[in-house]
Amino acid sequence: MGMPNANKIKPVYLIRALRLPFITASILPFIFGSLLAKNNFHSLAFFLGLICVGCTHLSANLINDYADSKSGADWQDRHFYGFFGGSKLIQDKILDESFYLSAAVVCFAIASLCILILALILHSFFIIVIFSLIILLAWFYSLRPLAFSYHHLGEVIIFLLFGPALVMGGYFIQTKIFPTLIGFLLSLPFGFLTTAILFTNEVPDCPDDKKAGKFTWVSLIGAGRAFIIYAFLICAAFIFILANVAFGNLKPLAVFSLIFILPAIKAVKILKQYPADKNKLIESSKITIAIQALVSIILILGLIL
Hints:
Helix content: 55-70%
Distance between the termini: 53 Å
Order of helices and strands: HHHHHHHHHHH
Number of strands: 0
Shape: globular
Number of domains: 1
Largest sheet: none
Strand content: under 5%
CATH topology: Farnesyl Diphosphate Synthase
CATH architecture: Orthogonal Bundle
Radius of gyration: 19 Å
CATH class: Mainly Alpha
Structural class: mainly alpha
Number of helices: 11
C-alpha cells in the first residue's frame, strides 16, 4: 500500500491519526508556564512556542503509532477504542506506516523552524539544545533502539516532558531563565496528571503490550493493582497544588481544583473493579483527560485573574 495523497485523506482520519484532542495535555501546561512571566510577556515568542509545542506533540503521537505498529503492539487487538491502543488506521488499512513517519517528519520540521526563529529572536542557542533533548525523548519514547516505553521508563519520560519541560520551557521563552525552583514546583501537578492519563491508558493495553515485549509500570504490578499507582499520581498532583498555594506560588483560586478529586475517585473505582474490561476503562480514560484539562484551566485562570 503506497502513501496516500494527503489531500484525499478524510479530515476525521487525519484528526484520528494525529490524536488531535489529546493536544490539550501539552498546550495547557505551556500556556501556564508562559503566563508565569506575565509582566514580561512577549506575544510573538509565545505563539511560536505554542506552535512548536503542538507540532512536537503531534509528531510524537505519529511516531508512537508508527513504532507500535512496527513492534506489533497495536496489532494484538485491532479494535479502535479512541483513548488507548493507537489510532488503528494502519491496522484498518486506511493509512500505512510510511504516512505516519512522513507526517511525523513534517510536524518535526515545523517545530524546528519555530525553534530556529525563536533562537534568533531570543539570541539564545540554548533553546535549540533544550528542543533537541525534548524531541529525542519524545521520539524515542516508543521508537527503537531506545524505546523508553518498552523498558519501564515511559512514565518517567511523560512526567518530565508534560510537566517540567513544558512549564519551565514556556517560562524560559519569555524570560530566558532556566531552570527555576518555583517553575519546577509549579510543573509537578501537570506532570503527575498527564502521567495519570498515560497510566490509565496502559491498564487496558497491558496484556497486548506484554505480548509485543512492551513493559510498562502496569506490567510490573499487574492490571488488578494498577489503581493504587493511579490513585498515588492523582493524590500527588493535588498535594503539590496545595503545597504551591501554601508557598504562595499559586493563588487561593487553585484550591477549587480539588473538586475534581470526586471524578478521580470514580476513575479509581473503575480501574479497581474492571481492570480487564476495555469498554469500561474508556470511561476512566475520559475522566482523567477531563481532570487534567480542567485543573490546568483553573491554574491558568489563577494566573490571569
